Amino acid sequence: MTTSTALPPAPVSPGPRPKKQVPHNVKTSRRAAWIFAPSLLVSFLFVYVFIGITVYISLSNWKIGTSPDLSLRQPFGGTYAEIVQEQRFQADIRNVVIFTVIFLVLAILGGLIAALFIHHVSVGKGLFRTVFLLPYALSFIVTGVAWRWIFSPSTGVNEILRSMGIENPPGWTTDPTILGALNSPSGTDFLKVQFGIPVALLPIIFAAAWQLVGFAMAMYLAGLASIPEEHLEAASVDGANIWQRLRHIVLPQLWPSTITCFVLLLHVALKIFDLVVAMSGSGPGFVTDVPGIYIYNYLTSRYDKASAMAIILLLLTLAVIVPYLIRGYRKERKA
Amino acid sequence: MAVETLEATPTQPVRTARRRPGKPAPKPRSWSLPKTLGGWIVLAVCAVATLGMLVPVYVIITTALSGSTGAPNFFLAFPDAPSLDAFKGAWTKLHGSLANSLQITIPAALISCLLGSINGYVLSKFPFRGSNALFTVLLVGMFIPFQAVIIPVFQFLNMLHLQGSIIGLILVHIIYGIPITTLIFRNYYEGIPSAIIEAASIDGAGIWKTYARVMLPLSVPGFVVAGIFQCTNIWNDFLFGFILASPAAWPATVTLNNLIGTTTVDYSELMAGAVLVAAPTVLLYLVLGRFFVSGLTAGAVK
Amino acid sequence: MRAPNKLKISLAVTAAASLIAVTGCSANQPAGSSAGGSDKLEITSWWTSGSEADALNVLIDGVKASKAGLAVDNAAVSGGGGSNARQALAARLQAGSPPDAWQVHPAGQLKSYVDGGQVADLTELWTQNDWASQMPKDVAEAQQVNGKYYTVPIGVHRGNVLWTNPAVLAKANVKIDPAGGVDGLISSLKQVQAAGATPVCLGDKDIFASSQLLESIIMSRAGADNWKKLFSNEYSFDAPEVKQALEDYKTILSLANKDHSAITWDEASKKMANGACAVNLMGDWAYGELVNAKKKPGTDFTWVTFPGKEDIFDYVGDGFSIPANNIPHAEAANAWLKTLMDPKVQTDFAAKKGSIPAVKSADISGLSKYQQEAAKSFASAKVVSSLAHAQAAGAEFAQTYADAVSTFNGSGNADAFIASMTAAQKTQL
To answer: Are C182 and C220 a contacting pair, CB within 8 Å?
Structure first.
């Protein structure tokens, strides 16, 4: 797994568990611990220790891979100070935030609506589900390749737009326009990018939403299936119509699914790399550049900058994941 | 033996293990056409949405069939003279790396599933003090952006002289696959009543014997779910292959991406390549989709 | 219910197993696993497109002819204007399993490899064969870093060539006059636009096309000497000539095809030759590509020296280096280097690639009219190194420049460009 495409199964807390009836003597427990230990150690090394190393590199003077200069850069954290002022860095952060927000809205809403419809459709449920979830089986590269073709400025959807009379359809991933720009940077202040929605990101967001709406749908379908029929029947007997049932019974019960979808899709969105590389690369003026690509580019010329960006990306991810995992862990302890 | 009577449980471990009030009655399978206007509307919306979702698939296939006439001028057009030429070209360029992908995916998936199964077994049946906390610590590894560790991983593989090789990639995929397979198996095993384990230990079996004799035979659906999950994710991986593999060891996704990189993009060949790269996982999904879905939702049902 | 599942599963497993068995035979070997010996040679480069691949094959045939029984592994990597290849190479060098030889631009690009101690010192080879005397001084100098030789040149490319479409120009009744400088160029282009044609074809999907255009304008405005001084921080990006050049670049960009960030450099050149626009600035590797695409020089396209006070030759060199450590096949690698310096091989290579041979003794009489003119120009014009191709400065500075150009393309903010370049001049040179 473990790549940017990977969405772990919803997870962590399976809910109330059957009481343990397995012999709990100390010997078995210790043996069990020893069996688990290797995986834990390896994971500790490959995750935590390596992250630590990356943090160190981001604080050091190591620029090119072949001449490691592991002395600490002075002033401390100088690399971070250096990159936050860069136009490219700011563009990346803007892009990944806009991407994540719009993508989450599309995928989660789309998944919810799809699940609601498919849950209630009387025939063909299996077919619809299969089709919606099919893109999830594809690599982001395959998706990127297909959607690149669909949004190609000369032969793609623009042909449809032109036939509808729109003279100058957007250049999509080649378009440097930023919609709704809130500022006009002078180039020498701290803020060097326009904050708005880059047109070039839109095709990428659609492609990502297409790929992952099935996942959200599957989560919601599972959630819908677990809503007790009795609640809904009782509500309709009480005179509630569809919308009221939706608002007061269904949606609240789907809240755990929503949280799970939100967290898992968010962490994929923050890490996005393959899809952007396949669809557009960095784009004119870095309108489609994302932290993942920044890191990759600087792996050949500036290890320290690449590491610093990687740590920033990690912190953004952990800000959402850690509370989620702790919540799951606490739930399990209660159970 | 106890195994016989529990046949039903493993296929739906999540559902039957839950004893909650208000458990929904299983819906009867209905293939009937909609009876109300609302029902027809729902059906129509579903149908249209599904067709919409299939547009990119259609586009990939038709463009791939454009062959020597080159990609059509309009992306939705069906080629006048469908041919398989593009596939021939794509196959020449991709067959080596498709083989690489296979060589990376199968061993990595198998081994990480096996390790996950053992871990899941231990964590769910023989929890020790702090096992939950440690498991949470392990899970973090699943969520980190891999760029945050790519440099040390690179240096580490260098030290072992495995950088650039297929074995190096397999190793990396196994290590970063353990958290997720552990999760899948742990959730799966939660659904197997501990009475079996107790019975086995009364019969005198230790941890390993119980695993081999009792759990493993029951684990087939778990292996299928975790296996499909891992196979799909490792086959579709790009980042590790891109950075940690040398051109001779590139998986198919990297070579496919390189087809874009050449000067003028030959879209029909590119799409044919996309079909070749997507085919195995799509086939896997179509044949074993049920397990795919239960992998996604394992544990989501509360 | 179980049986069908089991059937499916066992089918899947059998299919997988048989696939492995079948494709296992055709799988590639991981890099570095081949045994040492003198009968194999692995070359990496980013020459994957039509004319480039043909030219590379000339070299491969040449080395095979010189060494019987030699098997050559062409490990060219496509994509990103060479950046994918350089990334893959960097990884292999770090891992200690380098190829036998790799393509490299001299001077600046070479410096990073020298600093990392990864590239072999070829000074002995050079003095033994007295190669320095066989080529122009500028070329020989570019192959050195700190007085030692680290690479062997195969060809000399010119980065600042203005390719033109005679038909489109004739229709607009415009002539591009090099003596008219950049101002003259811009007014000619505007005339073309007034006549209803697209003046400039640009394909900067790989940003180097833009950065090359900008550097040609800067060179033209500032002059060859000032250009060189940019890289010793004696001349600033803040200078009025550079500022003027940035404005010129913005103007020319506005006169270019709107989809320039969507198309690659060779697509743009071909569009120009097909009549979609009047001019296209590209290095003369475009010549090789255009001829490969069956375009006729002289009729479908022609060329003009980039307008300016003096004739400046923007030198982009092609050459090969070998690794300093862990070289898999040292003998074969040496044979490769010697093949590169064979005058006949240089001529044949140039014929396919569009460059001019590096050695003076190579016969250029059989090469195209363009190449003969370029060779004359190289001998008489002022030769400077290209920044867009990371030759004038190291990798980091070149990346900063590329990033700044990309940003400038999007924002048009000259102050921001100047600010990042002047900062880079202070810290990265």
So the answer is: yes
Asked, as a colleague might, if the bond just before A14 is cis with ω within 30 of 0, I would say no
Do residue C24 and residue B99 have CB atoms under 8 angstroms apart?
yes
Which of C118, C397, C403 should we substitute to test contact with A (largest number of A Cβ atoms within 10 Å)?
C403
CB C211 within 8 A of CB C398: no
Q: What's residue B236's pLDDT? A: 92
Smallest Cβ–Cβ distance between A40 and the set B134, B187, B243 belongs to: B134
Say which DSSP state C149 is in. E
The verdict on a CB contact (< 8 Å) between A210 and B134 is no
Between the CA of residue C397 and those of A66, C381, C393, C403, C423, what are the distances in Å?
18, 26, 6, 10, 10
Residues forming beta bridges with residue C315, ordered by sequence position:
C158, C385
What distance in Å separates residue C20's CA from the closest CA in chain B? Answer: 7
Specify which residues A3 forms β-bridges with: none
Residue B8 has pLDDT above 50, yes or no: no
Say how many residues make up chain C: 429
Instruction: Give how far A225 is from chain C: nearest CA, Å.
Output: 22
User: B197 — contact with chain A (CB < 8 Å)?
Assistant: yes
Q: What is the pLDDT of residues C49-95, one digit of tens each?
A: 778 888 999 999 998 888 888 888 888 887 656 777 887 788 778 77
Give the tokens for residue A304.
Answer: 């320290």
Name which of A154-158, C186-190, C317-321, C376-380 the model is least confident about: A154-158
CA distance to partner chain C, nearest, from residue B300 (Å): 23
Render pLDDT for A257-271 as a digit per residue (tens, 0 to 9).
898 889 889 988 998
For residue C231, the SS3 value is: coil
Sign of the Cα torsion C31, C36, C39, C42 reads: positive
Both structure tokens of C309: 């006070």
Coil, strand or helix: which one is B163?
Answer: coil
**C319 beta partners:** C104, C153
Which tokens go with C251? 């103007």
Residues of A whose CB is below 8 A from B243: 296, 299
Q: Is there a contact between B301 and A221 (Cβ–Cβ < 8 Å)?
A: no
Strands C40-44 and C302-305: unpaired
C-alpha dist (Å) from residue A252 to A223, A224, A235, A257, A332: 11, 11, 14, 10, 21
Q: For residue B300, how far is the Cα from the chain centroid?
A: 17
| Chain C neighbors of B155, CB-CB under 8 A | 94
- pLDDT, one tens digit per residue, over A225-253 is 888 888 888 887 887 777 888 888 888 88
pLDDT digits (tens, 9 = 90+) for C121-154: 999 999 998 888 888 888 888 898 888 999 999 9
- A 10 A CB-CB count for A258 gives 18
Provide φ and ψ at C305, rounded to 5°.
Answer: -65, 140
Chain A CB contacts of B110 under 8 Å are: none
Q: Is the pLDDT of residue B162 over 80?
A: yes
Interface contact flag, C75 B161, Cβ < 8 Å: no
Reported residue count of chain B is 302
The pair phi, psi for residue C31, each rounded to 5°, is: -60, 145
Q: Which of A54, A301, A189 is nearest to C403 (CA)?
A: A301
Burial class (CB in 10 A: 0-12, 13-18, 19+), A97: middle
Minimal CA separation from C332 to chain A, in Å = 26
Secondary structure of chain B: what % helix, strand, coil (to 5)? 75, 0, 25
The one-character DSSP state at C180 is G
Q: Do A286 and C416 touch (CB under 8 A)?
A: no
